[in-house]
Amino acid sequence: NENGGEYRVELKPDIGGGTIDELWNNVVLGVVGEIIDPAEFITGVRFLDKLGTKKPCLRIELWFEDYTEENKKFALRGNLERMLRTRLDGSEGIVTWGRTQIKNHRGMGN
Q: Which of 29, 24, 26, 25 has the alpha carbon at shortest distance from 10?
């Protein structure tokens, strides 16, 4: 994903396992079901356990293909955040994850 990037959502462990599960499930179902648009722009999703670090957190990453595509990045971020706020009953909940960060993969090397 050399020319792409990722959106990162860091979750503090104190928000609770149920909330973390719901957020992760929303992202996975949104990617698999192609509900998070633009779906063709998404290259991957992953969940990282960073609890053993200086700043313990769990992190959800949504990878996309071209960091220079500003309109697609803007749409993707909005749809990702909407999906994260969606509750099991379909209602829209509050933001529980702080802020959505973006990272460019260019120059990361393999």
A: 24
User: Helix 17-32 and helix 70-85: axis angle, to 10°?
Assistant: 130
Structure tokens at 101: 């960060």
Beta-bridge partners for 10: 59
CA distances from 71 to 57, 68, 101 (A): 30, 9, 17
Contact 8, 102 (CB under 8 A): yes
What span, in angstroms and rounded, lies between the C-alpha atoms of 3 and 46? 18
48-105 pLDDT, tens digit per residue, is 999 999 999 999 999 999 999 999 999 999 999 999 999 888 899 888 788 899 999 9
Q: What is the 8-class DSSP label of residue 73?
A: H
Contact indicator for 5, 67 with CB cutoff of 8 Å: yes
In eight-state DSSP terms, residue 110 is -
The pTM (predicted TM-score) of the whole model is: 0.92
